[in-house]
Input
Amino acid sequence: MKEFLSPGRYVDSDHPDVIAFARKHVRGSTDVERAVSLYYAVRDAIRYNPFLDFSKDESFRGSVCLQQGEGFCIGKAALLAACARVVGIPARVGFADVKNHLTTPRLAEHMGGTDLFVYHGFTEFWLEGKWVKATPAFNLELCRKFRVMPLEFDGRHDSIFHPFDADDRRHMEYVRDRGSHADVPVEEIKRVFRESYPGLYKLGKDAAKESFAPSAG
Output
Protein backbone atom coordinates (compact mmCIF):
# COMPACT_ATOMS: atom_id res chain seq x y z
CA MET A 1 0.00 0.00 0.00
CA LYS A 2 3.03 2.29 0.22
CA GLU A 3 2.58 3.77 -3.26
CA PHE A 4 -1.06 4.57 -2.48
CA LEU A 5 -0.06 6.52 0.61
CA SER A 6 2.94 8.36 -0.84
CA PRO A 7 2.83 11.74 -2.63
CA GLY A 8 2.74 11.68 -6.42
CA ARG A 9 3.47 14.29 -9.04
CA TYR A 10 -0.25 14.85 -9.66
CA VAL A 11 -1.73 13.21 -6.59
CA ASP A 12 0.43 15.65 -4.64
CA SER A 13 -0.53 14.89 -1.08
CA ASP A 14 2.58 16.68 0.19
CA HIS A 15 1.42 20.08 -1.09
CA PRO A 16 0.72 22.51 1.79
CA ASP A 17 -2.62 23.62 0.36
CA VAL A 18 -3.81 20.04 -0.05
CA ILE A 19 -2.72 19.18 3.47
CA ALA A 20 -4.55 22.21 4.87
CA PHE A 21 -7.72 21.47 2.89
CA ALA A 22 -7.78 17.82 3.95
CA ARG A 23 -7.25 18.61 7.61
CA LYS A 24 -9.90 21.34 7.52
CA HIS A 25 -12.62 19.18 6.00
CA VAL A 26 -11.95 15.68 7.33
CA ARG A 27 -14.51 14.41 9.83
CA GLY A 28 -15.12 11.17 11.70
CA SER A 29 -13.25 8.57 13.67
CA THR A 30 -13.11 5.78 11.05
CA ASP A 31 -11.54 5.65 7.60
CA VAL A 32 -14.99 5.26 6.06
CA GLU A 33 -16.28 8.39 7.78
CA ARG A 34 -13.15 10.34 6.87
CA ALA A 35 -13.30 9.27 3.22
CA VAL A 36 -16.96 10.28 2.98
CA SER A 37 -16.31 13.72 4.46
CA LEU A 38 -13.44 14.35 2.04
CA TYR A 39 -15.53 13.17 -0.90
CA TYR A 40 -18.23 15.77 -0.26
CA ALA A 41 -15.66 18.49 0.39
CA VAL A 42 -13.97 17.95 -2.98
CA ARG A 43 -17.22 17.32 -4.85
CA ASP A 44 -18.85 20.58 -3.83
CA ALA A 45 -16.00 22.98 -3.03
CA ILE A 46 -14.42 22.54 -6.47
CA ARG A 47 -16.46 23.54 -9.51
CA TYR A 48 -16.50 21.11 -12.42
CA ASN A 49 -15.14 22.62 -15.63
CA PRO A 50 -14.07 20.61 -18.71
CA PHE A 51 -12.76 23.68 -20.56
CA LEU A 52 -9.13 23.61 -19.49
CA ASP A 53 -5.82 23.74 -21.27
CA PHE A 54 -5.11 20.02 -21.53
CA SER A 55 -1.70 20.64 -23.08
CA LYS A 56 -0.48 21.77 -19.65
CA ASP A 57 0.47 19.19 -17.06
CA GLU A 58 -0.89 21.32 -14.22
CA SER A 59 -4.45 20.83 -15.49
CA PHE A 60 -4.20 17.29 -14.13
CA ARG A 61 -2.67 18.15 -10.72
CA GLY A 62 -4.71 17.98 -7.52
CA SER A 63 -3.17 21.04 -5.86
CA VAL A 64 -3.74 23.22 -8.93
CA CYS A 65 -7.36 22.09 -9.08
CA LEU A 66 -7.70 23.18 -5.44
CA GLN A 67 -5.96 26.53 -5.93
CA GLN A 68 -8.10 27.40 -8.95
CA GLY A 69 -11.32 26.26 -7.31
CA GLU A 70 -12.26 24.34 -10.43
CA GLY A 71 -11.22 21.35 -12.45
CA PHE A 72 -12.46 18.48 -14.56
CA CYS A 73 -12.91 14.89 -13.49
CA ILE A 74 -9.23 13.91 -13.47
CA GLY A 75 -7.99 16.89 -11.48
CA LYS A 76 -10.77 16.48 -8.92
CA ALA A 77 -10.09 12.73 -8.63
CA ALA A 78 -6.39 13.45 -8.09
CA LEU A 79 -7.23 16.01 -5.42
CA LEU A 80 -9.54 13.62 -3.59
CA ALA A 81 -6.94 10.84 -3.67
CA ALA A 82 -4.32 13.27 -2.37
CA CYS A 83 -6.59 14.37 0.49
CA ALA A 84 -7.16 10.74 1.45
CA ARG A 85 -3.43 10.09 1.60
CA VAL A 86 -2.98 13.14 3.82
CA VAL A 87 -5.17 11.51 6.49
CA GLY A 88 -3.66 8.06 6.06
CA ILE A 89 -6.20 6.41 3.76
CA PRO A 90 -4.66 4.51 0.81
CA ALA A 91 -6.07 5.95 -2.44
CA ARG A 92 -5.51 5.80 -6.18
CA VAL A 93 -7.04 7.17 -9.36
CA GLY A 94 -9.12 5.08 -11.77
CA PHE A 95 -10.23 5.74 -15.32
CA ALA A 96 -12.91 4.63 -17.76
CA ASP A 97 -14.37 5.71 -21.09
CA VAL A 98 -17.97 6.83 -20.66
CA LYS A 99 -20.79 8.03 -22.86
CA ASN A 100 -22.40 11.22 -21.59
CA HIS A 101 -25.82 11.67 -23.16
CA LEU A 102 -26.33 15.14 -21.64
CA THR A 103 -23.24 17.04 -22.75
CA THR A 104 -23.71 20.66 -23.83
CA PRO A 105 -23.86 21.55 -27.55
CA ARG A 106 -20.75 23.73 -27.21
CA LEU A 107 -18.69 21.00 -25.61
CA ALA A 108 -19.93 18.43 -28.13
CA GLU A 109 -18.89 20.76 -30.96
CA HIS A 110 -15.34 21.01 -29.65
CA MET A 111 -15.25 17.24 -29.14
CA GLY A 112 -16.09 16.64 -32.79
CA GLY A 113 -19.71 15.68 -32.19
CA THR A 114 -18.99 12.61 -30.07
CA ASP A 115 -20.57 11.87 -26.69
CA LEU A 116 -17.70 9.56 -25.70
CA PHE A 117 -15.50 10.89 -22.91
CA VAL A 118 -12.20 8.99 -22.78
CA TYR A 119 -10.25 8.69 -19.53
CA HIS A 120 -13.07 9.82 -17.25
CA GLY A 121 -11.44 9.96 -13.82
CA PHE A 122 -12.58 8.83 -10.38
CA THR A 123 -10.98 8.04 -7.02
CA GLU A 124 -10.61 4.68 -5.33
CA PHE A 125 -10.21 4.37 -1.54
CA TRP A 126 -8.94 1.30 0.29
CA LEU A 127 -11.67 0.90 2.92
CA GLU A 128 -12.53 -2.09 5.09
CA GLY A 129 -10.33 -4.42 3.04
CA LYS A 130 -11.46 -3.47 -0.48
CA TRP A 131 -11.21 -0.73 -3.11
CA VAL A 132 -14.27 1.53 -3.25
CA LYS A 133 -14.88 3.95 -6.13
CA ALA A 134 -16.01 7.55 -5.66
CA THR A 135 -16.67 10.07 -8.42
CA PRO A 136 -16.38 13.68 -7.18
CA ALA A 137 -16.59 15.33 -10.62
CA PHE A 138 -20.00 17.07 -10.67
CA ASN A 139 -20.51 19.56 -7.85
CA LEU A 140 -23.99 19.87 -6.34
CA GLU A 141 -24.71 23.29 -7.87
CA LEU A 142 -23.91 22.03 -11.37
CA CYS A 143 -26.05 18.92 -10.85
CA ARG A 144 -29.01 21.11 -10.00
CA LYS A 145 -28.53 23.25 -13.11
CA PHE A 146 -28.33 20.19 -15.36
CA ARG A 147 -31.03 18.31 -13.44
CA VAL A 148 -28.55 15.48 -12.93
CA MET A 149 -28.90 13.29 -9.86
CA PRO A 150 -25.99 14.18 -7.55
CA LEU A 151 -23.82 11.24 -6.62
CA GLU A 152 -23.86 10.26 -2.97
CA PHE A 153 -21.11 8.22 -1.33
CA ASP A 154 -21.32 6.07 1.80
CA GLY A 155 -17.78 4.73 1.84
CA ARG A 156 -18.89 1.13 1.36
CA HIS A 157 -20.40 1.02 -2.14
CA ASP A 158 -19.05 2.27 -5.46
CA SER A 159 -20.33 5.72 -6.37
CA ILE A 160 -20.27 6.21 -10.14
CA PHE A 161 -22.54 8.16 -12.45
CA HIS A 162 -26.19 7.22 -12.33
CA PRO A 163 -27.51 5.89 -15.66
CA PHE A 164 -30.44 8.36 -15.62
CA ASP A 165 -30.86 11.98 -14.63
CA ALA A 166 -33.59 13.66 -12.55
CA ASP A 167 -35.98 13.53 -15.54
CA ASP A 168 -35.27 9.83 -16.26
CA ARG A 169 -33.22 10.69 -19.33
CA ARG A 170 -30.17 8.56 -20.07
CA HIS A 171 -27.05 10.13 -18.56
CA MET A 172 -23.79 8.22 -18.10
CA GLU A 173 -22.82 4.87 -19.57
CA TYR A 174 -19.47 3.21 -18.81
CA VAL A 175 -18.09 1.52 -21.91
CA ARG A 176 -14.38 0.78 -21.23
CA ASP A 177 -12.20 0.32 -18.16
CA ARG A 178 -8.86 2.15 -18.42
CA GLY A 179 -7.40 0.79 -15.21
CA SER A 180 -6.22 2.24 -11.91
CA HIS A 181 -2.96 4.03 -11.07
CA ALA A 182 -1.07 5.36 -8.08
CA ASP A 183 -0.62 8.63 -10.00
CA VAL A 184 -2.23 10.19 -13.07
CA PRO A 185 -0.70 8.81 -16.32
CA VAL A 186 -0.67 12.27 -17.89
CA GLU A 187 1.40 11.61 -21.01
CA GLU A 188 -0.84 8.71 -22.05
CA ILE A 189 -4.00 10.73 -21.34
CA LYS A 190 -2.72 13.71 -23.31
CA ARG A 191 -1.88 11.45 -26.26
CA VAL A 192 -5.38 9.97 -26.27
CA PHE A 193 -6.97 13.42 -25.85
CA ARG A 194 -5.00 14.77 -28.82
CA GLU A 195 -6.17 11.88 -30.98
CA SER A 196 -9.77 11.84 -29.77
CA TYR A 197 -10.51 15.58 -29.44
CA PRO A 198 -8.14 17.60 -31.63
CA GLY A 199 -10.53 20.58 -31.60
CA LEU A 200 -10.82 20.70 -27.81
CA TYR A 201 -7.11 20.04 -27.31
CA LYS A 202 -6.12 22.85 -29.68
CA LEU A 203 -8.14 25.38 -27.69
CA GLY A 204 -5.22 25.53 -25.28
CA LYS A 205 -5.37 28.66 -23.14
CA ASP A 206 -8.42 29.85 -25.08
CA ALA A 207 -10.45 27.09 -23.41
CA ALA A 208 -10.95 29.44 -20.46
CA LYS A 209 -13.12 31.65 -22.69
CA GLU A 210 -15.67 28.87 -23.12
CA SER A 211 -18.67 28.31 -20.87
CA PHE A 212 -19.92 25.02 -19.45
CA ALA A 213 -23.60 25.44 -18.61
CA PRO A 214 -26.90 23.86 -19.72
CA SER A 215 -27.60 26.87 -21.95
CA ALA A 216 -24.13 26.90 -23.52
CA GLY A 217 -24.03 26.67 -27.28
About this structure: The first strand starts at residue 47 and ends at 48. The mean pLDDT is 87. Helices lie at 16-25, 31-45, 62-68, 73-86, 105-110, 140-146, 186-196, 198-202. The chain is about 35% helix and 20% strand.
